[in-house]
């Protein structure tokens, strides 16, 4: 005769709401913004899907929509007991993402190039976008022909190719992977994430 297996505890939405009325960090009080995106969200098939705030991630786990894959080592104080903050969560239902291309714009070009001038290595958020093959000479506005460049380098290059201007590109531009732009704005990449983002360079 079949027997019922015990189910994992499931938190109700009212309980989740009551938890967030009294949540505070148990470790490093005030050091973490609960609303900033810092939790890696995996699809049901373990591919990276996006980033979530601590608040969003914990509620997804509490209501049974996701499970914790890796913990961060930090905790939240709840009415019942300290609750571990996840570092990585996995959705239990598959989210079908359309295969559309990443938006080609200045922000994403700078993010792809790590906010670094591809000619001199200067870092900053005020960089310009340069056409490797000048637009006036048939250069297209595509990932493979656009790079981040500081203003002095852009002015120095003028209406020339890097070779003609005596300048060298740090790397050959290419369309970025979804995972790269996903974490481009983070100051550092948690070690546990590298298993799910194998194409991201060490930083």
From TrEMBL:
Gene3D superfamilies given in the database record: 1.10.30.50
HNH nuclease domain residues: 104-155
Pfam family, one: HNH_5
Gene Ontology molecular function terms on file: endonuclease activity
Assigned keywords, A-Z: Endonuclease, Hydrolase, Nuclease
UniProt cross-references to InterPro entries, sorted A to Z: HNH_5, HNH_nuc, NA-targeting_endonuclease
Signal sequence region: none
PANTHER family linked: OS07G0170200 PROTEIN, SLL1193 PROTEIN
Protein name, as recorded: HNH endonuclease
